[in-house]
Amino acid sequence: AQSVTQLGSHVSVSEGALVLLRCNYSSSVPPYLFWYVQYPNQGLQLLLKYTTGATLVKGINGFEAEFKKSETSFHLTKPSAHMSDAAEYFCAVSGPFNKFYFGSGTKLNVKP
Amino acid sequence: EAQVTQNPRYLITVTGKKLTVTCSQNMNHEYMSWYRQDPGLGLRQIYYSMNVEVTDKGDVPEGYKVSRKEKRNFPLILESPSPNQTSLYFCASSLSTSGANVLTFGAGSRLTVL
Question: Labelling B67: which of A62, B52, B55, B98 has CA 20 to 30 A away?
Answer without folding.
Answer: B98
